[in-house]
Amino acid sequence: MSTDTIRGVPRGTAEAPLSILELATVGEGVTPGEALRDATELARRGERWGYHRLWVAEHHGMPGVASSSPAVLIAHLAAATSTIRVGSGGVMLPNHAPLVIAEQFGTLHALHPGRIDLGLGRAPGTDMATAGALRRQAEVDPDDFPQQVAELTGFLDGSFPAGHPYASLQATPRGDDRPPIWLLGSSGFSARMAGLLGLPFAFAHHFSAANTEPALDLYRSSFRPSAVLDQPYALIGVAALAADTEEEALRQAMPGALSWLRMRLGRPGRMPTPEEAAAYPYTPIEEEFVRDRLSTVVYGEPERVRAGLEELRKRTGADELMITTMVHGGEARLRSYELVARAYGMLG
Question: Which parts of the sequence belong to the Luciferase-like domain (predicted)?
């Protein structure tokens, strides 16, 4: 599998492919069903607007996120579209038996050949109590992640060596090929592992901005060509929000910052409205947190957002940008992605 297979053929005039990271955000006054319908509409329009791929993230125990079951949501989004790549950004592999993921994504690949991506992370995606309930054991050694990835690859490829405990097992359905595996990370561990395995790497710049360039440098310096990739391919997740005016962009960005603040305070909830975020009584420390959070978000009028994204792409050398837009309400999210696509000339 070459870099072209991983990247595909980007459309429009974007200097690098633009993609979407979707969490099916549930805002105040919004039901999970409505949030999932908004995610479906974004997938349809994102495909029409020229976005390259759409990934959904696995999170648990968060009232403001409806993407707790990536395989189920991917199946729905892929069925609602026809060309955009759909995948996980990512499946938190320690939460699952590798055979289960091989069966789920083997099924997705059989249903939508050539359109499914399997992104893997090693974090729990939740608090430790919920992780224990998911895994049926309280402690999971993160150092087991390489072994879990090897097992998953063995099931997907049917490549267990003779004498392996699982050599006689077969994950079904399994065709002649499989979805590409990506490793996701917010530190150097997965960056180095992706490089050594010759896999594409996705870095969570949107919540670990200080580690982006060191992690990408480590990935590239560690990279070894493999059967699936002949040169490094790095994607970064970016928080971005475009609106018709700078003032409106800031107004729409504030709920996401408040949501992050509440999560850090141990009080995760639904995405607040812009009015709620504006009226919140921030302490000086909380104001500093919000300013710091907003400094990692590329927001503003469309051309300013494009300029910010391009500066980030050139600075990091990223091969692809995956935009996540944390706002209250589906219409604001759709408008932002449309404005970014227009700024890049992707709508013709």
Answer: 23-319
Task: Give the integer Cα–Cα distance in Å for 24 and 320.
Answer: 22
Beta 181-185 vs 116-121: how paired, if at all?
parallel
Q: What pLDDT digit, counting tens, does each position of 195-239 carry? A: 999 999 999 999 899 999 999 999 999 999 999 999 999 999 999
CA–CA distance from 148 to each of 23, 120, 144 (Å)? 25, 10, 6
- CB atoms closer than 10 angstroms to residue 303: 12
Contact 92, 123 (CB under 8 A): yes
- 135 vs 115: CA distance, rounded Å: 29
What are the beta bridge partners of residue 240?
298
pTM of the model: 0.93
Both tokens assigned to 103: 């069966």
d(CA 238, CA 19): 10
Tens of pLDDT along 140-189? 565 789 999 999 999 999 999 999 999 999 999 998 899 999 999 998 99
Q: In CATH, what number does 3-343 get?
A: 3.20.20.30
Identify the bridge partners of residue 91 per DSSP, sorted by sequence position. 120
Q: CA 217, CA 236: separation in Å to the nearest integer?
A: 13
